Amino acid sequence: MTERLLVQRLYERHIEQVLVTVGLALATVALFDGIWGTDPRFLTGPAWMESTTRIAGANVPNDRFIAILGALVVLAAIVLFLQRTRFGMIIRAGVENRSMVTALGIDVRNAFTLVFTIGGAAAGVGGVLASHYFGYVSPLLGQTLLIFAFIVTVIGGLGSLIGAAVASVLVAVLQQFANYYLWGTGDLAVVVLLAAVLLARPSGLLGRQ
Amino acid sequence: MSQHTAYPEKSASGTAAAPVLVVRGLRAHVAGQQVVEHVDLEVAATGVTALLGRNGVGKTSTIKAVMGLIGREGGITLDGQDISHLPTHRVAQLGVGYVPEDREVFSGLTVTENLRLAERRGSEHRYDLVYDLFPELRERGQQAAGTLSGGQQQMVSLARALLNDNRVLLVDEPTKGLAPRLVQEVARVLAHAAEVVPILLVEQNLQVVRTLARDAVVLTDGRSVHHGPAAEFLDDPVATQRLLGVHGGTDPAGAV
C-alpha cells in the first residue's frame, strides 16, 4: 500500500524515495512509541532455542542456528524467485531498463509492488529472528541494525543480492573477531572495511561497474 | 521553405487501404523542453514508411512520443483507435512493436530470456520466424545479451519486436554503428518483416531507405515538412540537400 501510494510516484527519483521511506519509518516508530511506549517487551522462545550447543569449543545459542537457517532459506527463495519466474525476469530487466520493459507491453508497476511486498515480508522474518536474538522487542530495536544493513548493502554492491549475502557474512564475522581478539573494536573494523571497499571498488564487491 | 505542409488526402503511394498509424499535430517534451513541435504522419498499412531528417530534428522523440515514453499531446490513432493517452505498456499491448535506437537489450538477461520477456499475452509467438531470420540467436540462447556484439544485440532487439503479432513496428536507426555486411543483413530482415507488418523506419543510411521505403516523412526542427513517395524525394537533389544536408542515396557516406 505504501508502495502504491507514495513510492511508485518516485521511481527514478532516488533522493525523494529515501526521504519518504526513512520519514515514514521514523513516523511509524514514533507512533508505536505513543501507543505502546518504548519499554522493551521481553519474550522467550521454546526451551530448545534458549539452550546452547557446543561447537568446536564454543557454546552457540540454538536460536542462532534458526537465524542462520532462516536467512539461508530467505536468500534461496529470493534467488530462485528472481532466476526462475517470469516476475523475477521482469524485475531483473526492470532494474536495468524500466522503460524498455514497459515498451514490451509489461506493466512494471505490478512487479515492483511485488518487490516491495517481498522486501516487507523479508524484513518481517528478519524482525522475528532478531527479536529472538535480542530476547526482546521494542520500536527502537532496528535502529542499530539499520546502519549495518546500509553498510552491508554498500559493501556488497547496490543491486546485488549475492553481494549483500556475502557482505553480511563478511561484516558479521569481521565484527565478531575484532570484538573478541582486538579489544572490542568490531564496529571500527566494519567502518574501516567499508572505507577500504569504497576506495578499492566504489560500486561494491559485486555491484555493477 | 520549411513551413508545415498539409497531409495529402490520399496516401502518397495511391493505395486504398487506410493507414495503420495516424499522427496529427503531435507535440512532445522531455524534462520541460519541447522536442517535437508539430508532427503529422501516416504509416501505410503495408510496407515501410521512412521518417527522415537531420540529426536532432525530433525523429527519435516522435517515435518515443508515439510509444508514450515521453510526454506528448496531439492525436495518435492506431487502426482508428485513439492511443494518445495510453501508458506505454498499453500501447505495446495493442500491437506496437518498438526497436529503440540503442537496441536496449537487457544485458543481464540471456538471449532466450530477452525473447521470453518480449512474449506478449494474447499473441502467438513466432519463434520459427525469429530463429529462421536469426539462427545465431538459438545458438547463443544461454549467453548474456550484454556480451553480444552490436550486430547481435540489434538482432535480439529486432527479434523481440518480430516475435509478436504486431500491427506496426517502430524501428529507430537499426543500422547505426554496424559494419556494412551487417547493414545489408538488417536491411534484408526489415524487407522480410515488412511483408507481414507495416514499419515506420528512422534511418540515416539513404541507400537502405531507397531499397525499403515506399513513403517518406521528413522532419525539420520538430515539424513534419514533407510527405510523399520516398524515391521521388530522394531523387530530388534540392530537397534532400535542403532537408537532409545530403544528396539522396548517392552520397558516398550514405552508400553501402
TrEMBL record, chain A:
GO terms for biological process: amino acid transport. The chain crosses the membrane at residues 18-36, 65-82, 111-134, 146-173, 180-200. It is found in: Cell membrane. It is a multi-pass membrane protein. Keywords: Amino-acid transport, Cell membrane, Membrane, Transmembrane, Transmembrane helix, Transport. Belongs to the binding-protein-dependent transport system permease family. LivHM subfamily. This is Branched-chain amino acid transport system permease protein. The lineage of its organism: Bacteria, Bacillati, Actinomycetota, Actinomycetes, Micrococcales.
UniProtKB/TrEMBL annotation, chain B:
The keyword ATP-binding applies. Keywords: Amino-acid transport, ATP-binding, Nucleotide-binding, Transport. One of its GO terms (molecular function) is branched-chain amino acid transmembrane transporter activity. One of its GO terms (biological process) is L-amino acid transport. Pfam families: ABC_tran (PF00005). The keyword Nucleotide-binding applies. CDD domains: ABC_TM1139_LivF_branched. It comes from the Bacteria. InterPro entries: AAA+_ATPase, ABC_transporter-like_ATP-bd, ABC_transporter-like_CS, BCAA_Transport_ATP-bd_LivF, P-loop_NTPase. Residues 21-246 form the ABC transporter domain. Belongs to the ABC transporter superfamily. This is ABC transporter ATP-binding protein.
